[in-house]
Amino acid sequence: MPRIPLITPESDLDAEQKRVLEGLLGRRGGRIPGPYRFTLHCPEVTELMHPFGEALRMRSTFPLRLSELAIVVTARMWDCDYVFQAHAPNGVKNGLPQSVVDALARGERPAFEKEDEEAIYDYLAELFEKHAISDATHARAKALFGVPGIVELTALSGYYGMVAMTLLAHEMPLPEGVQPPLRPRR
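The structure corresponding to this sequence follows.
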């Protein structure tokens, strides 16, 4: 059960919430994605947050295989089942190996076959676990993705960290029938 009410199109909203919700529904095909069902309580946050997330996902310089990897690594680091279950299937559909998703779900370091996937994992894992990135890991990611790429990667992970925090803080339930995909980490 969520800690605060989930906003729906039928919710009793003030004029500002209605305006922001209409814009969101128009850009999202009539549905409200999980985090916005909470952030609409503060429409100014939603109005800033949604275009930022949309830009990072829809206009990314990374192929979906890699951007979804960054999102599921972030979800794993936050232990956020909701984000993980929402993005892992799209990653697999776009070429991310199921074995990588399964290892992340188990809380294990995946065995990577592709250097770009391993570089993203290492970059984000170091940032989350050590709150820093070694010179070698940073240089490797920069060599593979360029300066704009590592700036985007960091922003993408930061955005999904904010999404995960929103969903975890207010206890967003998983969709009906979905089991938590993440095992506790060792």
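Helices lie at 15-27, 36-39, 43-58, 64-78, 81-93, 98-106, 115-130, 135-169.
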